[in-house]
């Protein structure tokens, strides 16, 4: 990355949103190291704006989780890794929406966990966002109760075109990333994604002003975002499942069903990542991580469930610090922020 | 709880350890509010003492996870709740053991996730515990690497006699508690357990000097403990699944397979707990918790997997603070600690 | 087995029914080769007798699935196998009952697959049994429709005391047998059960006039039975999971959650059983069974789900015919039937 | 269907095979009622021809499970149902291949059920097909054993373009059909598939000379096929999950993970199908099917597992006989066969 890094600002028109990973023509070509300043629409395509806007009535399936992108990254080829550093994720509105959705969510039967029961009632909550004080205000629907919570903005959906000739709905998380819905995807974090097709075809969307772990009801505090990311490329190094790195942690993700498989994928990936970078044998890494890993859930509601395995870098042997690019991207982000 | 609370010290002889929840005669009868000062042996019954002590050779199945107890709590009846406050959990040795165990753990096939592959190699790690500096030292088996980690002592196994006339192995976590293996079970926390039989028949064991979330390889940093707990009784209030309360959090647990069911149980229990105590409707509590819950895994290796759902008390409406006994038990614990 | 085999008739009084596997004193001691003529009560303990007898109101949890037994089999020790041959299973009444039960069954949320939805409505169906014509008559509750089906009597619950010092509810299927709920457990079949404790402690119950595969709503066509079984003992041969043998098939079972683990257990057990008896390598047996196995589900509603793996004996290499006792027990059964 | 039904013969060239459902241009347009005479290549694209042709070496991922098609069915629109009647499925060769594949199959860890164990050994079995005697000859790899089995040809992969803008690998079964791998997909059966896109885009492949239920090792007796199907269209009637109908049975399928979800989907679909066609209430249909359904597994190895729920038509109320087209297609098939 050099001082002359490209900065690309992109705010899609209504027709430019994309609803899949794979299968869409690139919105732009960018060079590795470029800064993307993008607007992302909320998961409802902006159609849920009041308590009366029931998802089943106002949304137009499968046109959910609109993606900003895809961006063709020059030089990216299968076997490489895309490093996406989140410089900032800022709500573009002073409100956000959440809801129950029929046959969707963890505490309801669904189209897959199919039962004879009627679905849960459909309900919408409009949250107030105070961008100055960085808070989200919950208004209970059935009583006067209000609760103010810290804002903790994140992107639910971050990914590249999938492997195996597939095109996946933007609602799906899998090895290509996609709708992982982890609160770890916040500003200051670098996300590593294995490249499956030429150009990688990176896109993002589904901003959340905040979200609990598991996204239990299936829908977070959904809002449009103005986000800045740096997109870099690591040549010749594959990444089997999406990984994240913060100043403090390295993290692996797994997305699968049942949930124990998502857990296994993330834990095995972290064991192998740590073993490779630390010189520990796989069994030693298995032992060390068994005693140190944190295992927060990301989503237990989507087409695949997503589990995160994370470990503090200072619990690992020296020089086991991820891909060796996070610090550089972090510094580039700080330069960007100081200039804007 | 009054100043004249009983203090019972109990260090089981080798013959006094118990290997089940339910089915064992009580070691002692205690009054609600009593302080128990107990010794617990490690999960291997103390038989793994060096790298050459392979579990499959030195342990005598099913005599694993020895329990200290059970204690008959006077006045406890089905429909009540036992409140167990952890005053202190201190390693009784300056070393601890961990290991792989054939066909046990998350990253191996098991007797249930049955495959034709040979099991992983069996290996033992002996950890050094520095009780002054409160650290655990990891010695890699296949290289010279050492890593020093903070000590964070906990009990893997805490429970009462189960319902439904059953007797369960001390290796099993379920609605009666048991082998939940959550790092949240540390000093300063109150654990709430629904009473299923007269006297509740409380026991505990399986101390860990520290453990990651999920206990991936199936075995934590296992050591004997000297622990102090206050056992109190809440009459007439049932608790469907084990719950925990710290100064900062209220937490529910679920133990089941597949892992998503453990998640569902814990989340639903927390939704209902918060709804009842806060006056929120169930759907409002579902929404609020979706945006605030933390969902760390406890174990993904035992007979049932255990998932934790926890939320900061200051994210909840005022006066939604658990059973109303934690603060009192916390104060009693501080008095005890100041006097001992 | 010789001509002087004991014949024991046992009809439990109301107080003699047992509700667990393990933990109960034997009703009688029998010699290997004995014939047991027993009465078994239905799963509701006979309390559901009309459409108005809702399970949640008339039944007394956990007193469900009453067992006839346990029988102490002389000489049976851990490591042996009990061979239970079903001579006849005959409904003891001209009616049977089925029902929905709140939070129980495959097409409803349950206490484990926990959701915020209200349970399905509770409903009872009384079936007419025509023991002459060997039919079961279904009367629809919400319309005039009637359907006559063939009777195919079976026992849902057949087992021995479990291992690991445990006592399990009679509603649980596991390695000790128990509530497997497979329609394969019909007259003419031999069931092999691994012995876990001295005397084996065999019991049975939960007769079904007929049942589909999976027992989808959780409850079959439940009725009391007059059943005749021969209980034999195979010394020194362990059986890890319950197996069955008919004139045509050998079958393994697995009971676990998630359902794929039940499948894996049954399939792996059958691969190993066939490999051992046929001289095929495990990989060859894996290949042969992949192309020949039938995999009907037994139950997908109980505490553990049960999967069956069965293969026609004439698809296996010669002399791969189970334990070598089925033909003898079959002949003994025919002698018994011709004499009674 | 009229006497002038189109007959289209299509044998794809090597370049014409397709590897996905969705995303491919049609090979031909056909009118409803047309007869398709097609050649399908085996799942290995014909590359495994001897015991030395290891899948990991000779196959070119993701170019597996080549599809013959897609065929654009004139007039087919979302909300319609395609009825595909299998007239004949005949092996095109006198041999077939099967194999283990690293990290694929039910009795091994996989990329999703991820463990630290090394994969099972890779092995190939070449089966001899005797098309006169209609047998498949198994040759054990590690001994001299041979077993002759009846031939029972079927197609593992039958489907249409998926919904939700997706393109799925031909290895995936889901609501669009695809790689369901059920032995029920044999000649004489009609398969009903919901149409998701204009023209439906039907294709098929993955012929098996025979297969057990569950396809345990992940690979059946794989061979090229000459197959004849009649493709008809039922306007205005949606089909949520693939259904099948034989002269004797109606059947629903579900494809999902965990396996209990696949079971739930198939059972719920059959309950609703029967309820709608019979006039039974849903609870009555639930009860009737609980006592009559057969629940054989299809595959427990693919990206989604597939479960079948089937019931004898003569166990259902009169006039509950599927879509009302099977008999007509069956007659058309017989006319075709008598003329060819």
TrEMBL record, chains A, B, C, D:
Pfam families: FmdA_AmdA. It comes from the Bacteria. SUPFAM superfamilies: Acetamidase/Formamidase-like. This is Acetamidase/formamidase family protein. It comes from Jatrophihabitans lederbergiae.
């Amino acid at each position: 990355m050099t001082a002359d890094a490209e900065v690309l600002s992109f705010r899609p028109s209504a027709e430019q949103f994309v609803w899949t990973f794979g299968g869409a023509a690139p919105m732009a070509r960018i060079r590795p190291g470029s800064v993307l300043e993008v607007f992302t629409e909320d998961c409802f395509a902006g159609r849920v704006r009041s308590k009366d806007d029931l998802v089943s009535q106002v949304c137009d399936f499968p046109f959910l989780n609109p993606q900003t992108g895809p961006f063709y990254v020059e030089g990216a080829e299968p076997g490489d890794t895309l490093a996406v550093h989140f410089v900032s994720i800022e709500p573009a509105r002073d409100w956000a929406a959440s809801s129950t959705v029929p046959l969707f969510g963890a505490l309801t039967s669904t189209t897959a966990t199919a039962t004879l029961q009627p679905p849960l009632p459909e309900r919408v909550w409009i949250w107030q966002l105070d961008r100055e004080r960085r808070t989200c205000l919950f208004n209970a629907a059935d009583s006067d109760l209000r609760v103010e919570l810290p804002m903790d903005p994140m992107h639910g959906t971050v990914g590249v075109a999938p492997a195996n000739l597939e095109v996946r709905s933007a609602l799906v998380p899998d090895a290509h990333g996609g709708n992982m819905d982890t609160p770890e995807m916040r500003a200051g974090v670098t996300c590593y994604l294995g490249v499956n097709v030429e150009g990688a075809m990176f896109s993002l969307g589904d901003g959340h002003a905040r979200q609990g772990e598991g996204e239990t009801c299936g829908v977070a505090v959904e809002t449009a975002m103005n986000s800045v990311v740096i997109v870099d490329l690591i040549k010749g190094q594959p990444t089997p499942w999406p990984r994240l790195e913060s100043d403090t942690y390295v993290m692996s993700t797994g997305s699968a069903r049942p949930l124990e498989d998502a857990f296994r994928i993330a834990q095995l990936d972290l064991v192998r990542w740590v073993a490779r970078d630390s010189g520990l044998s796989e069994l030693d890494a298995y032992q060390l991580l068994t005693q140190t890993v944190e295992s927060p859930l990301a989503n237990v509601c989507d087409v695949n469930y997503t589990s995160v395995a994370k470990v503090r870098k200072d619990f690992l042997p020296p020089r086991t610090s991820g891909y060796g690019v996070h610090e550089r991207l972090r510094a580039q982000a700080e330069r960007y922020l100081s200039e804007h």
